[in-house]
Specification:
Blueprint (H helix, E strand, L loop, with lengths): L7 H16 L5 H28 L1
Protein name: Transposase mutator type
Length: 57
């Protein structure tokens, strides 16, 4: 089901997440917890790398 007034970026993100979940089904709380921890780790790492790149250039 589509969402109203959803940006193209949001649609792509939602599709990508849906595809990931189809290929990697979550079977319990531990799976969800590990996924969230990895996601947070990736976001922080990417942000810190971007900040470092900005400060070095």
């Amino acid at each position: 089901m589509g969402r109203r007034n959803e940006s193209p970026e949001k649609k792509r993100s939602r599709k990508l997440i849906g595809e990931f979940l189809k290929e990697n089904p979550l079977t319990g709380f531990n799976d969800i917890n590990e996924l969230v921890k990895e996601l947070i780790s990736q976001v922080i790492e990417t942000g810190l790398e971007s900040e470092l790149d900005e400060n070095l250039c």
